[in-house]
Amino acid sequence: MARPKIALIGAGQIGGTLAHLAAMKELGDVVLFDIAEGIPEGKSLDIAESGPSEGFDAKLKGTQDYADIAGADVCIVTAGVPRKPGMSRDDLLGINLKVMKSVGEGIRDNAPDAFVICITNPLDAMVWALQKFSGLPANKVCGMAGVLDSARFRHFLSLEFGVSMKDVTAFVLGGHGDTMVPSLRYSTVAGIPLPDLIEMGWTTKEKMDAIVQRTRDGGAEIVGLLKTGSAYYAPATSAIEMAEAYLKDQKRVLPCAAHCDGDLGVKDMYVGVPTVIGAGGIEKVVNIKLNKEEQEMFDTSVKAVQGLVEACKGIDSTLA
Ligand code: A3D
Protein backbone atom coordinates (compact mmCIF):
# COMPACT_ATOMS: atom_id res chain seq x y z
CA MET A 1 0.00 0.00 0.00
CA ALA A 2 1.35 3.43 -0.93
CA ARG A 3 2.25 5.76 1.89
CA PRO A 4 -0.22 8.60 2.58
CA LYS A 5 0.62 11.90 0.89
CA ILE A 6 0.82 15.07 2.95
CA ALA A 7 0.84 18.41 1.13
CA LEU A 8 2.08 21.43 3.03
CA ILE A 9 1.04 24.69 1.37
CA GLY A 10 3.49 27.29 2.65
CA ALA A 11 7.08 26.34 3.41
CA GLY A 12 7.88 29.04 5.94
CA GLN A 13 8.55 28.61 9.64
CA ILE A 14 5.51 26.44 10.37
CA GLY A 15 5.58 24.65 6.99
CA GLY A 16 9.20 23.54 7.43
CA THR A 17 8.53 22.38 10.99
CA LEU A 18 5.45 20.46 9.80
CA ALA A 19 7.53 18.72 7.14
CA HIS A 20 10.16 17.70 9.68
CA LEU A 21 7.56 16.38 12.14
CA ALA A 22 5.54 14.54 9.47
CA ALA A 23 8.71 12.82 8.21
CA MET A 24 10.00 11.95 11.69
CA LYS A 25 6.63 10.45 12.63
CA GLU A 26 6.46 8.63 9.27
CA LEU A 27 2.97 9.95 8.64
CA GLY A 28 3.56 9.76 4.91
CA ASP A 29 5.43 11.29 1.98
CA VAL A 30 5.62 15.08 2.09
CA VAL A 31 5.19 17.68 -0.64
CA LEU A 32 6.21 21.17 0.43
CA PHE A 33 4.69 23.89 -1.79
CA ASP A 34 5.57 27.58 -1.76
CA ILE A 35 5.64 30.45 -4.23
CA ALA A 36 9.15 31.34 -3.01
CA GLU A 37 11.55 29.55 -5.33
CA GLY A 38 14.19 27.40 -3.66
CA ILE A 39 12.73 27.53 -0.15
CA PRO A 40 10.56 24.39 -0.33
CA GLU A 41 13.22 22.57 -2.35
CA GLY A 42 15.95 23.52 0.11
CA LYS A 43 13.93 22.62 3.20
CA SER A 44 12.83 19.30 1.67
CA LEU A 45 16.39 18.31 0.84
CA ASP A 46 17.67 19.38 4.25
CA ILE A 47 14.98 17.33 6.04
CA ALA A 48 15.51 14.33 3.75
CA GLU A 49 19.19 14.47 4.67
CA SER A 50 18.22 14.11 8.35
CA GLY A 51 16.53 10.80 7.47
CA PRO A 52 19.59 8.55 7.74
CA SER A 53 20.38 9.77 11.27
CA GLU A 54 16.76 9.84 12.36
CA GLY A 55 15.94 6.57 10.59
CA PHE A 56 12.69 7.53 8.92
CA ASP A 57 11.25 6.41 5.61
CA ALA A 58 9.50 9.29 3.89
CA LYS A 59 9.98 11.00 0.55
CA LEU A 60 10.15 14.79 0.54
CA LYS A 61 9.66 17.07 -2.43
CA GLY A 62 9.71 20.85 -2.70
CA THR A 63 7.73 22.54 -5.45
CA GLN A 64 6.08 25.66 -6.90
CA ASP A 65 3.70 23.54 -8.96
CA TYR A 66 0.25 22.66 -7.60
CA ALA A 67 0.21 19.54 -9.84
CA ASP A 68 2.67 17.99 -7.36
CA ILE A 69 0.05 17.94 -4.58
CA ALA A 70 -2.24 15.74 -6.72
CA GLY A 71 -4.04 13.10 -4.71
CA ALA A 72 -2.87 14.42 -1.33
CA ASP A 73 -4.61 12.83 1.65
CA VAL A 74 -3.94 15.81 3.92
CA CYS A 75 -3.21 19.45 3.09
CA ILE A 76 -1.98 21.76 5.82
CA VAL A 77 -2.12 25.43 4.84
CA THR A 78 0.26 28.00 6.31
CA ALA A 79 0.65 30.14 3.18
CA GLY A 80 0.45 33.87 3.80
CA VAL A 81 2.11 36.30 6.16
CA PRO A 82 2.50 36.09 9.94
CA ARG A 83 2.17 39.10 12.25
CA LYS A 84 4.93 41.28 13.59
CA PRO A 85 5.04 43.02 16.99
CA GLY A 86 2.19 45.52 17.33
CA MET A 87 0.02 43.79 14.73
CA SER A 88 -3.16 41.91 15.54
CA ARG A 89 -4.10 38.72 13.68
CA ASP A 90 -6.92 40.69 12.07
CA ASP A 91 -4.42 43.08 10.41
CA LEU A 92 -3.46 40.16 8.14
CA LEU A 93 -6.96 39.76 6.67
CA GLY A 94 -6.68 41.52 3.31
CA ILE A 95 -3.36 40.03 2.23
CA ASN A 96 -4.04 36.50 3.47
CA LEU A 97 -7.53 36.41 1.92
CA LYS A 98 -5.94 36.71 -1.54
CA VAL A 99 -3.58 33.89 -0.64
CA MET A 100 -6.53 31.71 0.47
CA LYS A 101 -8.13 32.21 -2.95
CA SER A 102 -5.15 30.83 -4.86
CA VAL A 103 -4.55 28.05 -2.32
CA GLY A 104 -8.25 27.06 -2.28
CA GLU A 105 -8.29 26.83 -6.07
CA GLY A 106 -5.04 24.84 -6.09
CA ILE A 107 -6.48 22.32 -3.63
CA ARG A 108 -9.82 22.19 -5.47
CA ASP A 109 -8.13 21.36 -8.76
CA ASN A 110 -5.52 18.93 -7.47
CA ALA A 111 -6.45 17.41 -4.12
CA PRO A 112 -10.24 17.56 -3.77
CA ASP A 113 -10.35 14.47 -1.51
CA ALA A 114 -7.90 15.82 1.05
CA PHE A 115 -8.55 16.63 4.68
CA VAL A 116 -7.55 20.28 4.87
CA ILE A 117 -6.20 21.96 7.99
CA CYS A 118 -5.77 25.74 7.79
CA ILE A 119 -3.37 27.56 10.09
CA THR A 120 -3.15 30.93 8.31
CA ASN A 121 -4.44 33.90 10.34
CA PRO A 122 -6.88 35.42 11.09
CA LEU A 123 -7.71 31.76 11.48
CA ASP A 124 -11.48 31.46 11.74
CA ALA A 125 -12.17 33.81 8.82
CA MET A 126 -9.41 32.32 6.66
CA VAL A 127 -10.64 28.75 7.09
CA TRP A 128 -14.17 29.90 6.24
CA ALA A 129 -12.88 31.56 3.05
CA LEU A 130 -10.64 28.60 2.20
CA GLN A 131 -13.62 26.24 2.35
CA LYS A 132 -15.62 28.55 0.06
CA PHE A 133 -12.76 29.00 -2.43
CA SER A 134 -11.94 25.27 -2.51
CA GLY A 135 -15.53 24.05 -2.59
CA LEU A 136 -14.51 21.00 -0.53
CA PRO A 137 -17.10 19.53 1.87
CA ALA A 138 -17.25 21.55 5.08
CA ASN A 139 -16.43 18.51 7.24
CA LYS A 140 -13.15 18.05 5.31
CA VAL A 141 -11.91 21.61 5.94
CA CYS A 142 -11.01 22.84 9.42
CA GLY A 143 -8.70 25.19 11.23
CA MET A 144 -6.00 24.61 13.81
CA ALA A 145 -6.18 26.93 16.81
CA GLY A 146 -7.93 25.20 19.71
CA VAL A 147 -5.32 22.45 20.02
CA LEU A 148 -2.60 25.10 20.29
CA ASP A 149 -4.55 27.41 22.60
CA SER A 150 -5.43 24.52 24.91
CA ALA A 151 -1.82 23.25 24.82
CA ARG A 152 -0.68 26.69 25.97
CA PHE A 153 -3.35 26.65 28.70
CA ARG A 154 -2.24 23.12 29.76
CA HIS A 155 1.40 24.15 29.88
CA PHE A 156 0.70 27.16 32.12
CA LEU A 157 -1.58 25.06 34.37
CA SER A 158 1.02 22.31 34.75
CA LEU A 159 3.56 24.94 35.87
CA GLU A 160 1.09 26.40 38.39
CA PHE A 161 0.17 23.01 39.88
CA GLY A 162 3.63 21.47 39.59
CA VAL A 163 2.20 18.37 37.90
CA SER A 164 2.79 16.60 34.60
CA MET A 165 1.27 18.18 31.52
CA LYS A 166 -0.05 14.70 30.72
CA ASP A 167 -2.47 14.92 33.64
CA VAL A 168 -3.81 18.35 32.72
CA THR A 169 -6.68 18.70 30.27
CA ALA A 170 -7.85 22.10 29.11
CA PHE A 171 -10.62 23.47 27.04
CA VAL A 172 -10.60 26.55 24.82
CA LEU A 173 -13.60 27.62 22.75
CA GLY A 174 -14.48 30.41 20.35
CA GLY A 175 -12.41 32.28 17.79
CA HIS A 176 -8.60 32.28 17.78
CA GLY A 177 -8.10 35.81 18.94
CA ASP A 178 -8.29 38.07 21.93
CA THR A 179 -11.86 36.90 22.55
CA MET A 180 -11.08 33.18 22.82
CA VAL A 181 -12.80 31.45 25.72
CA PRO A 182 -10.59 29.26 27.93
CA SER A 183 -13.06 27.36 30.15
CA LEU A 184 -12.17 26.70 33.79
CA ARG A 185 -15.12 24.35 34.29
CA TYR A 186 -14.10 22.03 31.49
CA SER A 187 -10.39 22.05 32.33
CA THR A 188 -9.05 19.54 34.82
CA VAL A 189 -6.09 18.09 36.67
CA ALA A 190 -6.57 14.29 36.47
CA GLY A 191 -10.31 14.82 35.98
CA ILE A 192 -10.73 17.32 38.85
CA PRO A 193 -12.22 20.55 37.41
CA LEU A 194 -10.31 23.76 38.09
CA PRO A 195 -13.11 25.36 40.17
CA ASP A 196 -12.89 22.34 42.54
CA LEU A 197 -9.12 22.80 42.80
CA ILE A 198 -9.71 26.44 43.77
CA GLU A 199 -12.18 25.27 46.45
CA MET A 200 -9.65 22.71 47.67
CA GLY A 201 -7.18 25.58 48.13
CA TRP A 202 -4.62 24.22 45.63
CA THR A 203 -4.76 27.47 43.71
CA THR A 204 -6.68 30.74 43.69
CA LYS A 205 -9.24 32.30 41.36
CA GLU A 206 -6.80 35.20 40.77
CA LYS A 207 -4.05 32.82 39.63
CA MET A 208 -6.47 31.03 37.31
CA ASP A 209 -7.66 34.35 35.86
CA ALA A 210 -4.05 35.37 35.21
CA ILE A 211 -3.41 32.05 33.41
CA VAL A 212 -6.54 32.50 31.31
CA GLN A 213 -5.27 35.94 30.26
CA ARG A 214 -1.78 34.60 29.53
CA THR A 215 -3.40 31.92 27.34
CA ARG A 216 -5.38 34.56 25.44
CA ASP A 217 -2.15 36.53 24.94
CA GLY A 218 -0.08 33.39 24.24
CA GLY A 219 0.55 34.18 20.58
CA ALA A 220 1.42 37.83 21.26
CA GLU A 221 3.85 36.82 24.03
CA ILE A 222 5.87 34.82 21.50
CA VAL A 223 5.62 37.47 18.77
CA GLY A 224 6.97 39.98 21.32
CA LEU A 225 9.95 37.76 22.09
CA LEU A 226 10.77 36.66 18.53
CA LYS A 227 10.18 40.13 17.02
CA THR A 228 10.46 38.83 13.43
CA GLY A 229 7.51 36.43 13.22
CA SER A 230 5.16 34.29 15.24
CA ALA A 231 5.21 30.92 16.99
CA TYR A 232 5.91 27.83 14.91
CA TYR A 233 6.98 24.79 16.92
CA ALA A 234 3.77 24.38 18.95
CA PRO A 235 1.48 25.43 16.06
CA ALA A 236 3.10 22.75 13.87
CA THR A 237 2.85 20.08 16.57
CA SER A 238 -0.82 20.90 17.07
CA ALA A 239 -1.68 20.56 13.38
CA ILE A 240 0.25 17.28 13.16
CA GLU A 241 -1.86 15.96 16.06
CA MET A 242 -4.98 16.72 14.00
CA ALA A 243 -3.53 15.24 10.79
CA GLU A 244 -2.56 12.06 12.63
CA ALA A 245 -6.08 11.77 14.08
CA TYR A 246 -7.45 11.82 10.53
CA LEU A 247 -4.87 9.54 8.90
CA LYS A 248 -5.09 6.92 11.67
CA ASP A 249 -8.86 7.27 12.22
CA GLN A 250 -8.18 7.91 15.90
CA LYS A 251 -11.53 9.58 16.70
CA ARG A 252 -9.63 12.13 18.79
CA VAL A 253 -11.72 14.69 20.63
CA LEU A 254 -9.92 17.93 19.77
CA PRO A 255 -10.95 21.57 19.79
CA CYS A 256 -10.65 23.05 16.33
CA ALA A 257 -12.22 25.65 14.06
CA ALA A 258 -15.02 23.58 12.55
CA HIS A 259 -17.95 24.48 10.38
CA CYS A 260 -20.96 25.10 12.60
CA ASP A 261 -24.39 24.98 11.11
CA GLY A 262 -26.60 25.40 14.12
CA ASP A 263 -24.01 23.84 16.45
CA LEU A 264 -23.70 25.82 19.70
CA GLY A 265 -26.15 28.27 18.12
CA VAL A 266 -23.72 29.28 15.32
CA LYS A 267 -24.88 29.41 11.67
CA ASP A 268 -22.59 28.87 8.65
CA MET A 269 -19.40 29.94 10.35
CA TYR A 270 -16.12 28.45 11.44
CA VAL A 271 -15.36 28.85 15.11
CA GLY A 272 -13.47 26.91 17.77
CA VAL A 273 -15.56 24.05 19.13
CA PRO A 274 -14.87 20.55 20.45
CA THR A 275 -14.88 18.01 17.61
CA VAL A 276 -14.25 14.35 16.90
CA ILE A 277 -11.59 13.86 14.19
CA GLY A 278 -11.37 10.50 12.41
CA ALA A 279 -11.26 9.08 8.89
CA GLY A 280 -14.43 11.02 8.03
CA GLY A 281 -12.71 14.34 8.77
CA ILE A 282 -14.64 16.39 11.31
CA GLU A 283 -17.01 13.58 12.24
CA LYS A 284 -18.86 15.42 14.96
CA VAL A 285 -19.14 18.78 16.67
CA VAL A 286 -19.67 18.19 20.38
CA ASN A 287 -22.55 20.43 21.41
CA ILE A 288 -21.50 21.14 24.99
CA LYS A 289 -23.66 23.16 27.36
CA LEU A 290 -22.30 26.54 28.33
CA ASN A 291 -23.26 28.44 31.46
CA LYS A 292 -24.42 32.06 31.23
CA GLU A 293 -20.97 33.60 31.62
CA GLU A 294 -19.34 31.21 29.12
CA GLN A 295 -22.19 31.72 26.65
CA GLU A 296 -21.70 35.51 26.81
CA MET A 297 -17.97 35.19 26.19
CA PHE A 298 -18.57 32.68 23.38
CA ASP A 299 -21.16 35.00 21.76
CA THR A 300 -18.69 37.92 21.90
CA SER A 301 -16.06 35.74 20.26
CA VAL A 302 -18.47 34.54 17.55
CA LYS A 303 -19.44 38.16 16.88
CA ALA A 304 -15.78 39.10 16.39
CA VAL A 305 -15.35 36.25 13.87
CA GLN A 306 -18.60 37.27 12.14
CA GLY A 307 -17.16 40.76 11.67
CA LEU A 308 -14.10 39.33 9.93
CA VAL A 309 -16.22 37.09 7.71
CA GLU A 310 -18.26 40.14 6.67
CA ALA A 311 -14.99 41.98 5.93
CA CYS A 312 -13.93 39.06 3.69
CA LYS A 313 -17.23 39.32 1.80
CA GLY A 314 -16.60 43.05 1.37
CA ILE A 315 -13.14 42.44 -0.11
CA ASP A 316 -14.05 39.50 -2.40
CA SER A 317 -17.54 39.68 -3.90
CA THR A 318 -17.49 35.97 -4.88
CA LEU A 319 -17.74 35.18 -1.16
CA ALA A 320 -20.87 37.26 -0.56
P1 A3D B 1 6.12 32.36 7.26
O1 A3D B 1 7.35 31.78 7.84
O2 A3D B 1 6.16 33.76 6.74
O3 A3D B 1 5.63 31.38 6.09
C1 A3D B 1 4.60 31.69 5.23
C2 A3D B 1 4.98 31.15 3.86
O4 A3D B 1 3.86 31.34 2.98
C3 A3D B 1 6.17 31.88 3.22
O5 A3D B 1 7.19 30.96 2.93
C4 A3D B 1 5.59 32.48 1.94
O6 A3D B 1 6.48 32.47 0.83
C5 A3D B 1 4.40 31.56 1.69
N1 A3D B 1 3.38 32.12 0.83
C6 A3D B 1 2.94 33.42 0.73
N2 A3D B 1 2.01 33.52 -0.22
C7 A3D B 1 1.83 32.27 -0.73
C8 A3D B 1 0.98 31.73 -1.73
N3 A3D B 1 0.13 32.51 -2.41
N4 A3D B 1 1.06 30.41 -1.98
C9 A3D B 1 1.92 29.62 -1.31
N5 A3D B 1 2.76 30.08 -0.35
C10 A3D B 1 2.71 31.38 -0.07
O7 A3D B 1 4.91 32.28 8.31
P2 A3D B 1 4.66 31.17 9.44
O8 A3D B 1 4.91 29.83 8.86
O9 A3D B 1 5.34 31.58 10.69
O10 A3D B 1 3.08 31.41 9.68
C11 A3D B 1 2.16 31.08 8.67
C12 A3D B 1 0.75 31.55 9.04
O11 A3D B 1 0.31 30.87 10.22
C13 A3D B 1 0.63 33.05 9.36
O12 A3D B 1 -0.55 33.57 8.79
C14 A3D B 1 0.51 33.07 10.89
O13 A3D B 1 -0.18 34.20 11.36
C15 A3D B 1 -0.26 31.81 11.12
N6 A3D B 1 -0.20 31.27 12.49
C16 A3D B 1 -1.35 30.76 13.00
C17 A3D B 1 -1.35 30.21 14.26
C18 A3D B 1 -2.63 29.65 14.82
O14 A3D B 1 -2.65 29.18 15.92
C19 A3D B 1 -3.84 29.68 14.02
C20 A3D B 1 -0.18 30.19 15.03
C21 A3D B 1 0.98 30.71 14.47
C22 A3D B 1 0.96 31.26 13.19
Could you describe the 3D structure shown?
The structure is a single chain. This protein has 320 residues and is α/β, with parallel strands linked by helices. The protein has two domains: 5-144, 3-Layer(aba) Sandwich (Rossmann fold), CATH 3.40.50.720; 146-310, L-2-Hydroxyisocaproate Dehydrogenase, Chain A, domain 2 (Alpha-Beta Complex). Helices cover 43% and strands 21% of the residues. It is built from eleven helices and twelve strands. The chain has helices spanning 13-24, 39-48, 51-54, 93-110, 123-134, 146-161, 194-199, 205-216, 218-226, 233-247, 292-315; strands spanning 5-9, 29-33, 60-63, 74-77, 115-118, 141-143, 168-173, 181-189, 192-193, 252-260, 269-278, 281-285. It has a six-stranded parallel sheet. A three-stranded antiparallel sheet has the order 7-8-9. A three-stranded antiparallel sheet has the order 10-11-12. A hairpin with a 2-residue loop joins strand 8 (181-189) and strand 9 (192-193). Helix 4 (93-110) packs parallel to helix 5. The longest helix has 24 residues, at 292-315. It is globular, with a radius of gyration of 19 Å. The mean pLDDT is 96. The structure holds 3-acetylpyridine adenine dinucleotide. 3-acetylpyridine adenine dinucleotide is lined by residues 9-15, 34-36, 39, 78-83, 92, 96, 99, 102-103, 119-121, 123, 144-145, 148, 176, 229-232, 235.
